[in-house]
Structure formats: structure tokens, C-alpha cells
Amino acid sequence: MDFVKLPKIELHCHLDGSLRPETVIDIAKMEKVDIPSYDIETIKNIMIAPLECNSLVEYLKTFAIPVDIMQSKESLRRVAYELLEDAAKENVKYIEVRFAPLLHIKKGLTVEEVIQSVLLGIKDAEKKHDIKGNLIIGCLRSTSLDNVYHVIESGRKFLQKGVVAIDLCGSEGEGFSKKFIEPIALAREYGYRVTIHAGETGIGKNVLEAVEMLKAERIGHGVFIKDCIEAYHIVKSKKIILEMCPTSNVQTKAVNNYKEHPIYDFYKDGIKVTVNTDNRTVSNTNLNNEYDIIFKEFNLTYEDYKEIYFNSIHASFATEEEKERLRSYFI
């Protein structure tokens, strides 16, 4: 199947994991950011995680250099634009980009300025390419509650102006949801939709708690519901969408290889799955590649593709008008 020609939707893509290595070098030179080398192959080797990572922790180390160069309004706007430009070349028609604004205030930007800069980059791309983007703002689970409230309040003014949801991400400890019940409830009250990274690193119960305690509508990854019957049942019964990222899951050792990935078993059992890159540069992938892998591995069909595509439309935090546009590609 030629996925290049098919319209696509991506719901789980990290901005700081999807920078062009050439851009990292260019911005480092212009803004005098200290990086280990200006050699493109050296930077690629630092930014791209091996398929055989030891863990999620090792995988996350690749984000250090991109975050260091994403500290100005200009750099944030540029990398957001380039991500959508790259996605548009793959025939991605709609993408939800996520990032943690607090990682980008090291040189004095406010959280509001960080968010606004990324939104401007998204809007720039929308004007030039056949793609629509929205923004999910995240908080690292290791941060303080004060910081979480600060991000929620700062992002509030951009709701319905490009910001659509809140996320929790980073290293995953057991029972993290309890800490964030009140701030996520406030975010929902303001109008944020909720998607939570959970069940990525061996703790299926985290998915159960993210749905029950945080009212998560979508789950980032969710691989380990396979080992927690209660989590599996709540995801299936409530039709919680899983944002699955096959290559990333192999890299972080959520699964040993593509064949062992549960995405096909979930899909055949009626769980709503979507296919995503997670981090285009870190995982050295794109959405065409992710689809190509799972379709070859599990012998899926064109009709399967359409079902996953429509799952993605339904799960997206797009407006109804935008969803209708996305449906029209298959009518």
C-alpha cells in the first residue's frame, strides 16, 4: 500500500523530538548556543536514539540539545513551522503537536511567549501548506504542582486559538495521577481536553488511574494495559483512544520488537488505536514509515487503514468543521 498518497492524521508528536538536525546546527550558530559539534553526522548521532535503547530514560537523553536551542521566540517559531512543513510533505492533513513550555524559559521567555511563538510557527505553516495543526501543552510529571498550575493558567488565554489540551509526560512512576488530580480538574474546567502519557513503561494500572482520576480522554501509548485487566476493560468500555507509537515503543523497550507490539491485538479486539510517530527525529521515523511497518507486520488492509484514520478523526481535538474536512478525503 502506498501510504504517501493517503491522507493522514497524527495525534502524538513531540515538538522537541522532531527537529531537523540541520536546523539545530543553524540555530546554534546564529544564537551562539554551545553544542558538541557542528558536524551534521555527529549531531544526528546524538539526536537519534538507537533502536536498541536500554530504557525510556536513555531515550529521553536525546532531547537535551533540541531543548537547548529552543529558547528564543524565533527558534520556537521556526521549528514549529518546519515540523508541520515536514508532516505536510507526507500528506499529513492534521497534526496535534505537544511540548512542555517550561523547558523553554531558560533564557527569559515567559510561558505565554513560548506558547505564542509555537502557535505562530504552526499558523505560518498552515498558510503555506495543506495542513492544520493544534497544540497540546504538557507538564513533566517531575515538576511541582505550582509549575503545573502556572502552565495551565498561562495557556488558558490560547484556548480556542490553537491550544486544545493538557498532557503529563516524562519518566513514568507508579501512581503519578494522584498528584495531579486538582490541577487537571481545573484545566478541564477551563476547557482543556485531556490526554495523558500512561502505561508506556510497564505500569498498566497508571492507565486505569489516568482515566478514573484525571478523566483522560486519550492515552499516550497505553501499551501495558495488556498486563492490567482493569485498565484494559476501562479503555475498551469507555472507548478511550490509544495514541500508539510503534518505533518509539521498540526503542524504549516497552516491547522487544515490532511483532510483539500489541497494537494489532488491541485493534482486532475493538480498542480504538491510532498510529503516531512520537518523535520524528529521535525515532528516525515519519508517519508513512510507522504505517508501513505495522501494515507489513500484521498484514492489515486498506479498510483497516480507513478505520484507523476515522478513529483518529473522532479522537482528535479538532473542531467539528475541521473533522468534516478530514472526513471528506474518504468520501
From TrEMBL:
The record marks 221 as: Important for catalytic activity. This is Adenosine deaminase. Zn(2+) binds at residues 12, 14, 197, 278. Catalyzes the hydrolytic deamination of adenosine and 2-deoxyadenosine. Residues 7-328 form the Adenosine deaminase domain. Substrate binds at residues 14, 16, 170. It catalyses: adenosine + H2O + H(+) = inosine + NH4(+); 2'-deoxyadenosine + H2O + H(+) = 2'-deoxyinosine + NH4(+). It comes from the Bacteria. The active site is at 200 (proton donor). Belongs to the metallo-dependent hydrolases superfamily. Adenosine and AMP deaminases family. Adenosine deaminase subfamily. Its EC number is 3.5.4.4. InterPro entries: A_deaminase (IPR028893), A_deaminase_dom (IPR001365), Ado/ade_deaminase (IPR006330), Metal_Hydrolase (IPR032466). Binds 1 zinc ion per subunit. Its cofactor is Zn(2+). Keywords: Hydrolase, Metal-binding, Nucleotide metabolism, Zinc. It is an enzyme of class 3 (hydrolase).
